[in-house]
Amino acid sequence: MPNEVxxxxxGHQYSRLxxxxxRAFSYQRFGLFWFYSLLSIVSFFMILIVRGWLILDLTDSxxxxxxxxxxxxxxxxxxxxxxxVLADRxxxxxxxxxxxxxxLLSLLVMxxxxxxGWIEVWHVFAxxxxxxxxFSFAMPARTSVVPDLVGPGDVPSAVAxxxxxxxxxxxAGPAPAGFIIGAWGMDTTFLVAAGILVxxxxxxxxxxVPRHAGTYRPDADKPRESVVQSILGGFxxxxxQQLIIGLLLLGLVVTMFxxxxxxxxxxxxxxxxxxxxxxxxxxxTASGVGAFCxxxxxxxxxxxxxxxxxxxxxxxxxxxxxxxxxxxxxxSLSLFLAFALGLFVQMFMTSNFTLVxxxxxxxxxxxxxxxxxIAIGLGPIGMISLGIAAEVYGPQPSLVVMAIINIVxxxxxFLTFRSLRNAEDAVAVMVQDLAEEPIAExxxxx
Length: 446
Hints:
By secondary structure, the protein is mainly alpha-helical. Helices cover 78% and strands 0% of the residues. It is built from 21 helices and no strands. Helix 1 runs antiparallel to helix 2, helix 1 (28-59) crosses helix 7 (174-184) and helix 12 crosses helix 13. The longest helix is centred in the N-terminal third of the chain and has 32 residues, at 28-59. The chain is globular and about 50 Å long.
């Protein structure tokens, strides 16, 4: 299959999708890649549920529940940079196959330990670190593939629709995981999560991952860049782009002060709402449904100005929703608020990520994306802080404080970075600069 993205011809079986928010699915390769990636993410969210419930069962500690989730994010402080370089050099398919295989083997080991009754707390932390290592290498490779599977005009649709794998994974993963835990135990849940990875691995092995225009190809007249030089080149490029810096900072704030609510969900369910693992799965599924709606809304909002408005609104709104969620003691109300949280979180994350993709040239895209994932790697700061505060003051007031901090910081960043308020003009200037001066020359000059 050729690497170029062929336009859809009249009468093509996907031509009816060429208009509207679903238009990226008119490209068959995008649809296949989306499906294989979805299977991997479904397994990921099943692991979140069973791991969180397992550590709560072993330790009965809110701090340990947040700490085990924080452990997964620690590798993302450094490894996404290396993953981004390897992806830019053309190793995207290998990274995806190796990381999913690594996850599959780790899940089989966990299932055996739980079944044999040998499971200990350090085993669960080791699983979290293993998942974090795999995620750190896989996500820059996985997300950098997406723009190369569609035409240039359909990149916003493709990025937004690809983000639905996370919301759909949150719909399809947690509820079944909760029911399997209650019915057959945690060892069976680990086995099911591992089994879901098998068709993903087979499909990805057969999938012809394209080499994008920016895949590393050494110039015959220039020495090959080392990995460190490639990483530094990415930092040099971002250093001169105020829009990208602002987008990365916004992603960091929401990751640190909003996303930790997911880590403490087992404690909220058991101690505040007085429910079990099945209800935890349903609550997380409600959040996933909201996230799916958020992804679709971003796909509909094609255009930089609309994406920027959506990001600003969701960045503030998610903090307000989290305050109400934190104060709720009703399971029914919490279900609705979990839906709203998923909606606003995904609206923010998807619009933020789409703008990062649109503001970044092909040849350095994976490295910039890796920096976006490093922001996620700083999430343990928020998780550990929330865990300590929850132990001392309780989870509800701790979440309220986190939400207020998010609202204040997001507002300050928007006020400080003028390029964020005028993202459309900023991207237009960047595109013009890139057309006049190749990125390699810009890096050298920097």
